[in-house]
Amino acid sequence: MTVSFAQLLQGIQNMTPGSLLMIAVGCLLIYLAVVKEYEPMLLLPIGAGAILANLPLSPMIEAEGMFTVLKKAGVDNELFPLLVFIGIGAMTDFGPLLENPRMMLLGAAGQFGIFGTLMLALLLGFDLKEAASIGIIGAIDGPTSIYVSNLLAPHMLGPIAVTAYSYMSLVPIIQPPIMRALTSRKERLIRMPYTSRPISRRIRIIFPIAVFVVVGTLVPMATPLIGTLMLGNLLKESGVVERLTKASSNEIANIVTLFLGLAVGSTMQAATFLKMQTLAILGLGILAFGLDTAAGLLFAKFLNFLSKGRFNPLLGAAGISAFPMAARVVQKMGQEEDFENFLLMHAMGANTAGQIASVVAGGVLLALLGAH
Amino acid sequence: MESLNIGIQLTVFGMGLVFLLLAVMALFITLLLRFDRTQPPMEEPSGPEYPAGLDAEALSAITIAVTMHQALRRKEAAPAMRRYRPGTRPSRWVNVGRHLQNTSWHPGRRVQ
Questions:
Q1: pTM beyond 0.90, yes or no
Q2: Which domain holds residue A137?
Q3: Cβ contacts (< 8 Å) between A98 and chain B: which residues?
C-alpha cells in the first residue's frame, strides 16, 4: 500500500474560500455567544455546527455522519423543536396571563411582524412559502421559526434560525427606540395598579387542556406546536409528575437544544448560506422585530384610548414571544420615567400571551399555506 | 402587484384568525374564572421546625441561655459583641460632653 503526500493534504486542497468564510461566520456566532452572551444555548452549538460542517471533506455531513443523522432524526421530522416546546411549557408560568386574560389581545397584536414581513418578502421577489418562512422570524420564537421554515422552505432553515436567535437576544436593544418613538412621556407615566388574584389549581390545569383543544380544533396545523407547549405546562401545573417536569425542563430541553443547534448549524454550508438572500433575510428579520413592537404599541395605544387613559401603551411591546426579556424592557422603560411605576406583572401577562400567540400564528400561517 | 394582493389577503386572514383565536381563549378564561368559585386553599402558617433530637422545651432553654449569655457579654462590652467597629462611633466621654453642651442647666430651657 502506498501513501502519497497529496492524500495527507486532502483537507487543505479541498478548502474553498466559501468554506473559509463559513468558518468565520461560525466563529462570529461563537464570539456572540461567549463574549456578548447572545442566546449562547443555541448560538454556540449553531456556530460549532457551522464550523464542523464546513471543514473540508467533513465526514460529519456525509450520509451516515453525525450531523446528517441528527438532522434526519430531529429536524426533518420536526421532533426537536417540539421537544423544546415541552420544556418551554414546563418552565412557563401562565399565572400572570390567567390573572388578566385581556392581555391575550396584546399577544395577538404582537404577531403583525410575521405578516408584515411576509408582504415585504413577497415584494422583494421571494416565493410565497419562502416569504412565509422569513415572516415567521417575526414570531420571535426560535423553535416556531425552525418548525415553520423547515416545513415551508427547508433550504432557508440555517439563515432563518440564525437570524431569529441572534435578534432575539437583541430585543433589549431593538425595542426601546421604537417604544420611545411611538409613545409620549405622558403615556409612559400611566400607572396601572396590580392586585394579585389567586388562581386555583383547577384553573391552572384546565387552561392548558382547553388551549390545545380550542386551538387544535380550530387550527389543526397548530396542534403540534400548541400541543407540546401546553403539554409541558400541564405536566408542571398538575403537580403530580415532578420528575417528568424536571426532565422536560432540564435534561430533555438541554440535550435537544444541543442537538438542534448542531443540526441547524450543519445546514449552514457555503453553497446554501452564502447568497444575497441571506442578507435579505437578516434585513427582513430585524424589520419583523420592529414591526411586531410597533404593532403591539399601537394596539396598546388603542386600548389606552378605549380605557380613557388608564392603559399604559408600553405594555404593547411585551406582546411578543421573547420571554421574559420583553417584559423586563417594558418594566425598565416604565421605571425610567417614574421609578415607582411597576408594570412588570402586567408585562409578564402580555409576554406569556405573546408566547401562545406566536405559536398560534405559526399554526395559522401553516394552515393558510396548506403545508403538510 | 399580484404577490402584494396575496400578501394583503394573508395578512388580513392571518391576523384576523390570530385575534379571533386569542379572543376566544381570553373569553374562555374569563368565563372559567367567573365560574370557578373555589378559592385556592390558604396556606396555614407552618409551625416552627425543631432541629433533630430537640423538643420545644429544650429549644426554649437553649434560646434563653444564649440570650442571657449575649446580654452578659454585651454588659462586659466584649469586643466580639460590639455593634460597631471601634472608632466609627464617638466614645462615651464625647457623647457625654455633647449631651452637656446641648442641655441647659436652666430647668425652663431644657429640651425635653
A1: no
A2: 15-368
A3: 29, 33
